[in-house]
Design goal:
- The complex is a heterodimer of chains A (about 625) and B (about 350).
- Chain A has about 625 residues and is α/β, with parallel strands linked by helices.
- In chain A, strands 8, 11, 12, 13, 14, 15, 16 and 22 form an 8-stranded mixed sheet that branches. A 6-stranded mixed sheet of chain A has the order 2-3-1-4-5-6.
- In chain A, strand 15, helix 12 and strand 16 (about 395-400) form a beta-alpha-beta unit.
- Chain A starts with 17 loop residues before the first strand and ends with a helix.
- Chain B has a single domain (about 25-240, about 275-325), classed as 3-Layer(aba) Sandwich (Rossmann fold).
- Chain B contains 12 helices and 14 strands.
- The termini of chain B are far apart.
- Chains A and B meet through strand 7, helix 7, strand 10, strand 11 and helix 9 of A and strand 1, strand 2, helix 3, helix 5 and helix 10 of B.
- Strand 18 (about 465) of chain A pairs parallel with strand 2 of chain B.
Chain lengths: ~625, ~350
C-alpha cells in the first residue's frame, strides 16, 4: 500500500472554490489544451484560479504535470496539497498516488487495472475507462489519443460542477475553423461527463461555484504581456536568439507587430505585397553575443530596442553588456530565468540570475534590474524599462522567470494612458547643438549624472567616437588615472540615482510585527499567503517585495527595523540576500535565507515551515 | 592624454567637391599607428574617396572592432559618428545600427584577427543577411597590437619575424564570402590607391554588403623576408588582371565608352561598374568561375586583386523585411503605439 507524501502535520482541507488538483500526463499527447480548457473555464466562472505547467525539456514521451489551484480568497500560489489527482501517466502512478492529500480523490484510466498494491485507503479511486471509450467512439488513431484528454476533462466538468455552457463556448472559440474537430471535442467531453454523472456522486464536496472575482481580469502569461509592453513602448528593432523559456516573448512580439505595426503605403492597392511597410525589424541572430550586439547598434542609433533571453544567453552577452554600460548605450534585456547552472533544467523555474545580471561583465559594472511579480507587472515594467534605459543611458534588465513567463496568470486588465509620452532621456538635436559652443559626450552630466547624447546622423558638431576603451569625460581616449576614475565614479553615482526612478518596493505592514519577510518576483503570492498563515499562527510579519535594483533606502531600513528578517527567493545561494547586504551595507547575518530552488514554483507552506523552524530555533 | 589631432591649415589652393568641402574636411585625428603602416594608406584612400563622392560627413557612420585596423575610423571623417566596439563584434553592432537607421552610409573597418578569428561567425552571418554597408578588411596576417602572432589569414609557410613558419591553413575572406552568399567581394592592396579608391566607391554604391579585403602590410611585425603579406611580396605576386572603373551615374555621359569586350554592371543607385579588363572567360557574376580563378592563383602563390565578384540583383536586409524608407529610429511614437482602444480589443482574447 502506498503512503501519503503529504506533510501530515498540516491540516489539508478542501471546500467549494478552495481546492487544488494535479493532472499527470505524458508530454506530447495533447493534454495541454484539455488542462488549460479547465483552467480557463474556472476563470470564466469568475473564480480566482492558477495553472502551473510543470513540463519536461522534451517534445514527446516524458512525464508532465499541470496543477490547478482554485481559491476564492485569491491565494493562487502553488498549492502542494492536491485534493484531486488526474493520473493519466502510468509511469508516474506511484508518486502521483502518494501526492494525493488524505481524503482526496484520484481519477485514473480503468481501461487497464490498477496494481492493488498502489491503492491507499485514505484516497477515493475513480476509474473511468477513457481509452476504451475513445477506442469505441473514434476511428482515427490520432483522435483516439487526443480525445482521451477531452474525455477526462468531461469527467472533471461533472465532478467539479464546471459550467457546461462555459466549456461549450470555449470549445466553439477554439475550433471555430474546424467543425470536425469541434464535433469530436464535444463528443469526447460528453462521453466523460455522462460517465461521471452515471457512476459517481457529482459534484464532489469541493467543486467550483460561480463568483464575480475575475470580471475585470485577464488570463495571460508573462512572455505575452512583456511583448505587449514592448509594442506599446515603441520598440522597433530587436536582436534575439531562440532559448527556452524566453522564445515566446519574441514570437509574441513578432505576432503583435505583424498586426499592429504595418503602415499602409499611400495610394497602394490594399492587400498587395507592397501595400504596407513594417515599422519594426526583428533580427534572429546567430547567437546571443550577436543579439545583444544588434541591440547596442540600434540603441546607439536612437531606436528603442530589446532582446529576450534566459541565463545562458546572459552569460554570452556579458562582454557587450559591459560595453553598453561603459559607453552608456540604452538597452533592454528580458531574462526569463530558468534553472542553472550551465544548461541546467531549461523548462524549470528559478531566480538564479540576480547577481549575474546585477554585475554582468568584467570590470566594475552595475546594472539596473526590474523584478516583475506577474504578467500584469511584466507589461508595466516592460514599458518602464525603455524609459529607464533611455533616461539613464544604460542596459536595463527585466527579470522574469519561467513561472511568470510561461504560465497563464489571472491579473487585472492591462491599462494604457493615451497621453503617455515616452521618456527618451537627454538627446541633443541639431538645434541644441547649434546653441552649444562645443559638444563633448560625457562632459555635462545632469542631476542624475547622465550627460546628453547625440545619435548618428546628427550635425557634425555632435559627432564623436564612442569607445569601450578608457575614455575621459570628453569621450576621448585616456590612460590617465584621474580622468578614467572621474568617468567610472559618475557611472556609479548614475546607477545609485536610478533608485528613485524604478518601481518602489511593495510593503504590507502588520501591527506589532517583529518579523520581516523580503522577497521578489514570482514568490509574491506564496509569501503573501505565508504572511497570512503565519499571522493565523500568531506570528505577525511585515512583507516587502523589492521590485528593482538599485535599492531605495527603505530596503535597508526594513531589514534594520525587524528583529527577524527573512529573504525568500528561488536560488541556492541567497542571491537577493547577498545583493541587499553588499549594496545597503546591512550585515548578511541580519537576514535568514529561505531558499527553494528545485525548479518548481514556490508554495506558501514551504515558506511557513522554514520561517517557523528558524524562529523556534532562535527562541 | 587626448588623441593627437591634425592641425587644420586652411590652404586656398585645395580643390573643393560639390559640397564645397576639401579633402581636409574628410580627415580625422592623427594616426597613432607605426610609420609606414598599410592601414594609414587605406585611411588616406577612404578619406579621398568620401571627398570625391561628395558625401556629407554627417551621413556617414563608421564602425570597427578591436585591433590596429579598428583604431583607424578616428583617422578619417571627423564629422561622422563612429563606434569602436569590441573584438570581433562589429558585424552585429553594425547590423543593429543599420536596422535602426538605414538612411546613413555605413563603413566598417576590421582586421584579419577581428574578422576571421574571433568574429568570423558574425562576419558569415553579416554576409547572409546582406547588411547594406562597406566592410573594409585590413588584412596583414598578424596580430599587431599583441606583437606579431599569426592570424587566421596567414598563409602556410609564411614566416613570422622570428622565422617560424605558419603551419595551419589560412582563411580567405573572399572564398568565405563566395560560400556564404556575399554579394560584393573585392581584393586590393593598401599600396595601390589607384585601384582601391574606385573599389571603395563601388562598395559604397553597392546595395548590400560590400567586402573589400585589403592586403595591408604590418611594417613592424610582418614585412620581412618570408612573409606573404609584406610590401615586397605583394609587389611581386599581385595579379591585376581584373581592372574596373567606377562611374557615378551623373558622370555617365561624360565618360568615354570602354572597349567592346568590357562588362558593365549597373549599381542600384544608377552608377556603373565597368570592367576594363578581365581574363578570358571570366564572369564576375559567376560564383564558381570566380572561386576557380582565385584558387588557381592562390596555388601559384599569387594574389589576385580587383572587383572579383558582384551580384547587384541581391536583396539587402531592409528589403527582406519590408521596412519603411525612413529610419526606424525616426518613426514617430504615435505610429508605433496602438493605443488604449486596441489594447482593450487585444485583451478580449485573454478571457
Amino acid at each position: 500500500m502506498t503512503t501519503t507524501n503529504v506533510d501530515e502535520t498540516r491540516a489539508v482541507h478542501a471546500a467549494v472554490n478552495d481546492f487544488a488538483m494535479k493532472l499527470a500526463n505524458v508530454n506530447g499527447t495533447g493534454s495541454a489544451s484539455a488542462n488549460s480548457l479547465l483552467m480557463q473555464a474556472i476563470f470564466r466562472m469568475g473564480v480566482p484560479v492558477s495553472g502551473k505547467n510543470l513540463f519536461p525539456s522534451n517534445i514527446q514521451g516524458l512525464p508532465t504535470w499541470y496543477e490547478i489551484r482554485v481559491n476564492k480568497s485569491g491565494y493562487t500560489a502553488r498549492a502542494l496539497d492536491y485534493n484531486l489527482m488526474v493520473a493519466m501517466n502510468s509511469q508516474t502512478y506511484a508518486e502521483d498516488i502518494a501526492d494525493v492529500a488524505p481524503g482526496g480523490y484520484l481519477l485514473y484510466d480503468s481501461s487497464w487495472p490498477l496494481d492493488p498494491d498502489m491503492l491507499r485507503d485514505d484516497v477515493t479511486f475513480l476509474g473511468v475507462p477513457l481509452a476504451k471509450m475513445c477506442l469505441d467512439n473514434f476511428t482515427s488513431p490520432r483522435e483516439r489519443v487526443l480525445m482521451k484528454n477531452i474525455a477526462y476533462a468531461g469527467v472533471l466538468v461533472a465532478l467539479l460542477d464546471i459550467d457546461l455552457e462555459v466549456i461549450a463556448t470555449l470549445l466553439d472559440e477554439s475550433y471555430s475553423r474546424n467543425e470536425k474537430l469541434l464535433a469530436s471535442n464535444q463528443k469526447a467531453l460528453r462521453l466523460g461527463y455522462d460517465y461521471a454523472q452515471e457512476h459517481f456522486t457529482c459534484p464532489l464536496e469541493f467543486h467550483v461555484s460561480p463568483m464575480d472575482e475575475t470580471t475585470h481580469s485577464i488570463l495571460i502569461d508573462g512572455n505575452t504581456a512583456s511583448a505587449l509592453g514592448c509594442l506599446y513602448a515603441g520598440a522597433t528593432v530587436t536582436g534575439w536568439y531562440p532559448i527556452t523559456p524566453a522564445t515566446a516573448l519574441m514570437d509574441n512580439f513578432a505576432a503583435f507587430c505583424a498586426k499592429f505595426r504595418r503602415e499602409p503605403v499611400d495610394g497602394a492597392v490594399p492587400g498587395a505585397p507592397d501595400s504596407y511597410r513594417n515599422n519594426y525589424l526583428i533580427l534572429q541572430a546567430e547567437d546571443e553575443i550577436a543579439a545583444i550586439g544588434m541591440v547596442l547598434g540600434a540603441g546607439w542609433s536612437g531606436a528603442r530596442t530589446f532582446t529576450s533571453t534566459s541565463g545562458p544567453g546572459i552569460s554570452l552577452m556579458s562582454e557587450l553588456l559591459g560595453l553598453a554600460y561603459y559607453t552608456e548605450i540604452p538597452a533592454v534585456i528580458f531574462d526569463v530565468q530558468r534553472t542553472g547552472p550551465s544548461t541546467g533544467m531549461p523548462t524549470r523555474t528559478q531566480q538564479s540570475d540576480i547577481l549575474l545580471c546585477a554585475y554582468a561583465s568584467h570590470g566594475d559594472t552595475k546594472h539596473i534590474l526590474l523584478f516583475p511579480a506577474n504578467p500584469g507587472e511584466c507589461f508595466d515594467f516592460a514599458v518602464k524599462s525603455f524609459d529607464v534605459a533611455e533616461r539613464f543611458q544604460t542596459p536595463v534588465f527585466v527579470l522574469l522567470d519561467l513561472d511568470i513567463g510561461m504560465n497563464d496568470w489571472v491579473v487585472p486588465e492591462l491599462t494604457w494612458d493615451d497621453d503617455f509620452v515616452p521618456d527618451r532621456g537627454p538627446v541633443l538635436d541639431d538645434q541644441d547643438l547649434a546653441e552649444m559652443a562645443e559638444f563633448f559626450r560625457y562632459a555635462n552630466a545632469d542631476e542624475n549624472f547622465v550627460a546628453a547624447r547625440t545619435v548618428p546622423g546628427s550635425d557634425e558638431k555632435g559627432a564623436y567616437f564612442i569607445r569601450g576603451s578608457g575614455h575621459n569625460k570628453f569621450g576621448t581616449y585616456t590612460e590617465i588615472p584621474a580622468e578614467y576614475q572621474e568617468v567610472v565614479d559618475r557611472l556609479k553615482n548614475k546607477h545609485a540615482s536610478a533608485a528613485s526612478y524604478v518601481p518602489a518596493p511593495v510593503v504590507i505592514r502588520r501591527e506589532g510585527a517583529t518579523v520581516g519577510l523580503i522577497t521578489l518576483g514570482s514568490c509574491d503570492l506564496a509569501v503573501r499567503e505565508a504572511a497570512d498563515l503565519l499571522s493565523d499562527q500568531g506570528v505577525a510579519a511585515d512583507f516587502m517585495r523589492v521590485r528593482a535594483f538599485p535599492f531605495v533606502e527603505e530596503v535597508r531600513r526594513f531589514v534594520e527595523e525587524h528583529e527577524h528578517c527573512f529573504v525568500i527567493e528561488q536560488n541556492r545561494d541567497g542571491q537577493l540576500r547577498s545583493l541587499i547586504s553588499i549594496e545597503t551595507g546591512v550585515a548578511i547575518e541580519k537576514m535568514h535565507p529561505v531558499l527553494y530552488y528545485g525548479g518548481f514554483p514556490l508554495s506558501a507552506h514551504q515558506v511557513v515551515t522554514s520561517v517557523t523552524e528558524t524562529l523556534e530555533k532562535s527562541r | 592624454m587626448k588623441s593627437p589631432t591634425k592641425p587644420i591649415i586652411p590652404l586656398a589652393v585645395l580643390p573643393k567637391n560639390e559640397l564645397g568641402l576639401t579633402v581636409r574636411d574628410y580627415e580625422g585625428a592623427m594616426s597613432t599607428l607605426c610609420a609606414g603602416c598599410g592601414h594609414d594608406s587605406v585611411t588616406a584612400a577612404i578619406t579621398q574617396m568620401f571627398f570625391e563622392i561628395s558625401m556629407p560627413p554627417r551621413d556617414i557612420v563608421k564602425l570597427s572592432g578591436i585591433g590596429c585596423s579598428s583604431k583607424t575610423p578616428t583617422y578619417f571623417v571627423r564629422g561622422a559618428h563612429g563606434f569602436n566596439s569590441a573584438h570581433g563584434r562589429m558585424a552585429p553592432i553594425a547590423t543593429g545600427a543599420n536596422a535602426a537607421n538605414r538612411e546613413l552610409t555605413m563603413i566598417g573597418i576590421s582586421g584579419d584577427g577581428d574578422s576571421l578569428s574571433i568574429g568570423m561567425g558574425h562576419l558569415a552571418h553579416l554576409m547572409r543577411r546582406n547588411v547594406n554597408m562597406l566592410y573594409v578588411l585590413e588584412n596583414n596576417g598578424v596580430y599587431g597590437l599583441t606583437k606579431g602572432q599569426f592570424s587566421a589569414s596567414a598563409d602556410i609557410g609564411s614566416r613570422s619575424k622570428r622565422g617560424v613558419a605558419n603551419v595551419v591553413a589560412p582563411i580567405d575572406p573572399i572564398l568565405l564570402g563566395l560560400s556564404m552568399g556575399a554579394t560584393f567581394l573585392a581584393r586590393s592592396f593598401s599600396g595601390d590607391k589607384a585601384q582601391l579608391i574606385p573599389l571603395l566607391k563601388a562598395g559604397v554604391a553597392h546595395r548590400g554588403l560590400a567586402i573589400i579585403d585589403v592586403i595591408s602590410p604590418c611594417v613592424t611585425f610582418n614585412d620581412h623576408e618570408g612573409s606573404t603579406k609584406s610590401y615586397r611580396f605583394m609587389r611581386e605576386h599581385e595579379i591585376k588582371e581584373i581592372e574596373t572603373d567606377f562611374v557615378p551615374w551623373e558622370q555617365e555621359i561624360a565618360m568615354p565608352r570602354s572597349k567592346d569586350d568590357a562588362k558593365e554592371i549597373t549599381m542600384h543607385d544608377g552608377s556603373t561598374v565597368r570592367f576594363r579588363s578581365v581574363p578570358e572567360g571570366y564572369d564576375p557574376r559567376d560564383r564558381q568561375k570566380v572561386e576557380d580563378y582565385i584558387r588557381e592563383h592562390r596555388e601559384r602563390g599569387e594574389v589576385a586583386t580587383g572587383l572579383l565578384y558582384l551580384n547587384e540583383d541581391s536583396i539587402e536586409v531592409h528589403e527582406l523585411n519590408n521596412t519603411p524608407d525612413v529610419a526606424l529610429a525616426k518613426v514617430p511614437f504615435e505610429k508605433l503605439c496602438p493605443g488604449s482602444a486596441v489594447l482593450a480589443k487585444i485583451q478580449e482574447s485573454f478571457r
